[in-house]
Amino acid sequence: MPIRHTDLETAAASAGVDVHRPFPKERWISSAPVFGGPLPAVCDWKFAASQTTVATLPDAVLLSGLFPLVGDDLVVTGMHNDAEARVSAKPPRLEGVRESLGGPCFLLGGHPDNFWHFLYNFVLRLAALVAHPDPEVRDGARILVDDALPSSFRPFLHLFGHDPARFLAIPSSRPVRVERLVVSELPFFRPHGRPRACRGAIALLRRHLPADRPPRGRRIYLSRADARWRRVANEAEVAAFLESRGFETVLLSRMEPMALVALMRAAEVVVGPSGANLGAALFCPQDAAVIELSYEPMARAYYFQGASSAGGLRHLKVVGRPEPSGEPSHRWAFHAPVPALADALAFALG
Q: Which residues contact 112 (CB under 8 A, 6 or more apart)?
């Protein structure tokens, strides 16, 4: 029988279980001043008044890629990036299920190679666990993560105050049966964000960061010089300008996780190209400024602007000139206009 895709609420109804929504509805409008390029002077995004659905699915099977299978033919979707087609194209062989987990387990998952998606689409899901009404789940459920997570990502899992022993790495390459699988929709995911879940998760994270906050005032340039795509073509010019204004250039790939957290907690202004590097802004103090360097059409993406708004950060955009190539447009290199960047920096610093 072919696998049918469904959303979490429909899957829960088919299993005869109730859902709950731990965060109330809230409309979300995010505004960002824009410098340079063809966009309007202010970029507004209006997010739907959506809610995060949470359900406990009985006798579920986690398929390849940590997709829950409920019953014989329902795959819960709308929680991962683009893998639904791959799941349906290669139906799983359920007779290969040899591992079972008893008791409640909370599906965290995790993106194995994208820092931004890992933080905003998966780690923030822990807010739904903390808000769960069942104390057995809230205080005792094992937290399932993808065993393909890089070692550099794993320390971030423990910033919410959960006992590291609660995290259990699950193989994403073979199916695992779970007696009671607690699943939450992602708090921040296209086509709309879920603001209360995002804001609640970020507030929770900040409460569990070390109490000895470093002095604020550092200016950080998050370079993508070693990224596979979306690099700044005039990187040397941009870095030189920013360094003349007191910025330090940082490559996330070369930083230890806790050193990165400490650095961002002290930030006054963060500048960086559109991309996973901006996920580090999650750790910035409220009211810090984030200046996103981008280009058309990438500048119209809401992800980074919306994430800043959820964290109480001031977001600005500098729109440059793309350098089209044979790659999809979201992978193009681009030229960042330094005069527009100077205007944005002056605006951010007031």
A: 146, 148, 149, 150, 172
